[in-house]
Amino acid sequence: MRKMEGKCGDETAMAEEPLIGDSPAMGWMKEIAARAAKRSSTVMILGETGSGKEMLARYIHHRSPRADKPFVPVDCSGFSETLFESQLFGHVRGAFTGAVRDTLGFVRAADGGTLFLDEIGELSPALQAKMLRVLQDRRVVPVGASRSYPVDIRVISATHRDLDAMVAAGQFRQDLLFRLQVIAINVPSLRERREDIRPLAEDFLTRQAEINRENVKPLSPSALAALESYSWPGNVRELFNVLEQATVLTDGDEITFANLPAPIRAPIQRPSASDMNLNEMIRRQVTEALTRSRYRRASAASLLGIERRRLNRFIKKFRIPVSYRDSVAWLRPNKTP
């Protein structure tokens, strides 16, 4: 995707990247997105990690009356609370140590266009309150300022977390959720639209060839079959990573089955729900994710699309080995892990 970035992530000119896939799940999602694009209502995009939530946000922006205005993406999990307040709302000179000049902030940089708040569930309670005020008043007060500034923005937010559960737990404001979730759109996981794997792969390989000024390396039938049978816990992001790795490591004219990573070549066969209870299914999936990630918990949680705290609860509940040493010790008799 070609883009021009200015202050605070202001993207005033960029070529649209289409949503690839004609599966029923994608068709329904595109229809809702096209309807939402025509209005200025806030949109909440829900979906697993790596499923393409930001891509959908851009799709909506490009089909809206604001298409020629900035699209400003903001990762709500990427900053400390103190720094993020300044990044989000801007600050005036002298507001704090190091504030040598006035800054707009992400919200004002998106004026006239779209503000995309990714991982909105990571926003702190204090910033949730300030964002609610911005949505209600359509005005923003920079850090250290004594006046507010009007803003005309369309807000699209996204999360992989269960915000309703967070509201029930007192971790997310219900009034803010009401404001953000006027229209909710679910992005299907890649395993829910396996028929889209082939066009996604072909499009990615073509673009990679153009970037690297080389011939396209197509997938062999056996390689494509392996991709289509894999579970893809990391969704589209994982697919693209696998394809890029295979392209680099392939010496021939096409990507073969042998060029794919071991987990893709030999996927673990998961029993059906009828063959085991829910707890056993969860235990096996967590164990598989830990093995694939070489027992790095943050990576395993990302593969599963859950928070690390929830992963830790599963590990404790099901007494799952958390390292290779533990997995061997687990097999010893009369040993308490």
List strands and helices in order, with pairings.
Blueprint: E1 3-5, E2 11-14, H1 24-37, E3 43-46, H2 53-62, E4 71-75, H3 81-89, H4 105-109, E5 114-118, H5 125-137, E6 139-140, E7 149-150, E8 154-159, H6 163-168, H7 174-180, E9 183-186, H8 197-212, H9 221-229, H10 235-249, H11 262-265, H12 278-292, H13 297-304, H14 308-318, H15 324-329
Helix pairs in contact: 1-2, 8-10, 12-13, 12-14, 13-14
Describe this structure in words.
This protein is of the alpha/beta class and 337 residues long. It folds into 3 domains: 3-188, 3-Layer(aba) Sandwich (Rossmann fold), CATH 3.40.50; 194-265, Helicase, Ruva Protein, domain 3 (Orthogonal Bundle); 273-329, Arc Repressor Mutant, subunit A. Helix content is 44%, strand content 10%. The protein contains 15 helices and 9 strands. It has helices at 24-37, 53-62, 81-89, 105-109, 125-137, 163-168, 174-180, 197-212, 221-229, 235-249, 262-265, 278-292, 297-304, 308-318, 324-329, and strands at 3-5, 11-14, 43-46, 71-75, 114-118, 139-140, 149-150, 154-159, 183-186. The strands form 3 sheets. Strands 4-5-8-3-9 form a 5-stranded parallel β-sheet. The protein has a two-stranded antiparallel ribbon with strand order 1-2. β1 (3-5) and β2 form a beta hairpin. α13 crosses α14 (308-318).
